[in-house]
Amino acid sequence: MDARTENPARNEVPVAFQWDLSGLYSSDDGWNTELKELEVDVKKYASFAGTLGKSALQLWSCLEFDMTFSRSLEKLYTFAHLKNDEDKTNNLYQRNFEKVMMLVNEASKASSFIRSEIMSIPEDKVQGFLAEKELGFYRFHLEQILRYRDYTLSEKEEALLAASGEMGRSMRDAFDMLDNADLQLGAIEDENGEQVSLTHGNFQSLLQNYDRRVRQEAFHTYYKAYESHQYTYSTLLAGSIKKDLFYSRAKKFSSYRAKTLFSENIPVQVYDNLIDAVHQNLRPLYKYFGLRKRLLKLDELHMYDCSVPIVEGINWHMPFEQAAKEIQAALSPLGEEYVEQVTRGLISDRWTDRYENKGKRSGAYSSGCYDSNPFILMNFREDNINSVYTLAHEAGHSMHSLYSRKNQPYLYSDYTIFVAEVASTFNEALLTRHFMSQDIELDMRIYLLCREIDNFRGTLYRQTMFAEFEHRVYEAAECNEPLTLETFKKIYIGLLELYFGPEVVLDDCLHLECFRIPHFYFSFYVYKYATGISAAYALTDRVISGGKTELNDYLGFLKSGGSKYPIDLLKSAGVDMLSPEPVRTALEKFSTLVDELEQLTSNL
Questions:
Q1: What is the largest distance, in Å, between two alpha-carbon atoms of the chain?
Q2: Phi-psi category of 561—alpha, beta or left, where left has phi over 0 and alpha has psi -120 to 50?
Q3: For residue 445, is it within any domain?
Q4: Residue 1: pLDDT band by 50, 70, 90 thresholds?
Q5: Main-chain dihedrals φ then ψ at residue 366, nearest 5 degrees
Q6: Residue 30 vs residues 20, 42, 70, 72, 368: alpha-carbon distances, Å
Q7: Which end of the chain is more exposed for a tag (fewer CB within 10 A), N or C?
């Protein structure tokens, strides 16, 4: 699909370019039948209420039912959300998604007694249960639950909080619909004098256009749309934060950050070490912006100048099939079995929904469930190198999920978000290594080197800035400061000035960037991109410079799912994230890349 093709309607997209969801459900009727069955089964939770402390066998029976029900519900949800994301304007799949979300919330409410009852069992008695063979399989699962003893409310209070879940996601849903369905981003005139409609999918491509007038116009037109809705966006984000604070306060956590870190057993020092390390290593970033300004021969460097390739005359064009082949070659250090599976998934097994269409969710992700293939949503652009890297990134997620599901039971197959970005970034590092190992001209080497630098900048520095923004706005809210448009602007502008330094002119509209980041509705997620790239590059170096043992350690990490706490999983693979060293090492690598760029371009 050519990058200039106008967005087709969903029914105009060739089937070969769509993901194949038939392994989940062959028809909507099959989905509806299972939905109705689960709507009946959810009522069976009530039969276990008040009985979990009677015996280890009774507790086991409840956990078995819960796992079986959850596995079936996950399958229903996966199909519904994938179909909904194909076209946000499709009323049928909007309704189906709402139906399954109502069941998700009903199940959450119906099962909410489980955790509180388990934690109400006296300590000596529950330890006796854990010693019995029936609960051997569930030991780690129960230990994870029992950690929450101090943060668990009464059964009625837990049920009430669970019942509020559907209401609690309304801010996120409203943002999603506004940003993907209702927002009109406008149009600009490209370098050939043709009108191009702005979309979330082509915005980054336009910012890489060599014509500065096109970049500037795309940038300001894009943010003009956000300016027209800035009060709505700020209200939605403030509402989402207030919702989070309600839940953390109800559970008696000291802060919402503490609540989210506790869920994965991540010490707060990991978060703070990340921000401190980046603050101490901003000079190489400023140096890079200075190099970019000089090489682009600009009097002023603006944000819309920070993505365009430094070397002119390189027109990137790589169709999806070729991108899959390059990824196949790049991943060869991971072994024949890994490469064969990922190649089959991307092409013949149709894991990927490849291209943008009208109403399709923006961005990219990997999804799926225990009883399905992994699935990758893409908005692939042949004219944007980032699309190739995004495909490799999401393939990393998908292979992590596939290996985990093949080697772990359902209960322990889900890995936590903290380790989720490791496999994806690992693949990106291998892709760069593959491209740079080829016999390429100086201009292409500079181009790829800048791409690697920009990947570090976008993943390590930018995501840390986002993480610091989240920390600051949540702290403000927890100190009862009003979360107004001006509050968000003040915090975000201060961080932009810190992270971009003296070399970048910050346009007034840039404060609006904080309102277009979907991850802020999944709070305290973004820091994991930065820790993920740090762990990934440490593991990449270990695998490339090592042998079979190091490779097996890494593949063992992919196969381990959620069978251990994330810090322990990474330690088993060979990296200690309690130490600041992985982040510092990644920042040193960034500095080395900038120095290499300076050397390669010294005569330009």
A1: 79
A2: left
A3: no
A4: very low
A5: -115, 135
A6: 16, 18, 18, 13, 18
A7: C
Task: Return the CATH number at 111.
Answer: 1.20.140.70
**Paired tokens of 480:** 């009862």
pTM reported for the whole predicted model: 0.82
Q: How many domains does the chain have?
A: 2
Q: What is the pLDDT of residues 426-481, one digit of tens each?
A: 999 999 999 999 988 898 899 899 989 998 999 999 999 999 999 999 999 999 99
419 contact partners, CB below 8 Å, separation of at least 6 = 532, 535, 557, 566, 569, 570
Q: List CB contacts of 581: < 8 A, sequence separation 6 or more.
A: none
Report the C-alpha dihedral over residues 19, 23, 29, 31, rounded to 10 degrees.
-90
Concatenating the DSSP letter of every residue in 240-280 gives HHHHHHHHHHHTT-S-HHHHHHHHTT--HHHHHHHHHHHHT
Tens digit of each residue's pLDDT (9 = 90 or more) over 390-437:
999 999 999 999 999 999 999 999 999 889 889 998 999 999 999 999
Q: Is residue 178 part of a domain?
A: no
The residue behind tokens 């901003």 is 282
Pairing of strands 301-302, 504-505: parallel
Which residue among 117, 382, 394, 428 is the active-site one?
394
Establish if 513 belongs to a structural domain: no
Could you say which of 137, 168, 199 is where a domain stops? Answer: 168
The secondary structure element, H or E, covering residue 395 is helix 385-407
Q: What is the pLDDT of residues 526-557, one digit of tens each?
A: 999 999 999 999 999 999 999 999 999 999 99
The pLDDT value given to residue 3: 40
Domain housing 190:
186-228
> 353 forms bridges with which residues in the sheet?
377
Rounded to an integer, what distance in angstroms lies between the CA atom of residue 447 and that of residue 451?
Answer: 6
Burial of 167 (0-12, 13-18, 19+ CB in 10 A): exposed
Contact yes or no for 394/366 (Cβ under 8 A): yes
According to the model, what pLDDT value does residue 5 have?
54
Same structural domain for residues 192 and 66? no
- Length of the chain measured in residues: 604
- Alpha-carbon gap, residue 255 to 252, rounded angstroms: 8
Are residues 379 and 355 in contact, defined by beta-carbon separation less than 8 angstroms? yes
Is-contact 557 570, C-beta < 8 A?
A: yes
Burial, 244: exposed, middle or buried (Cβ in 10 Å; 0-12, 13-18, 19+)?
buried
pLDDT in tens, 228-238: 999 999 999 99
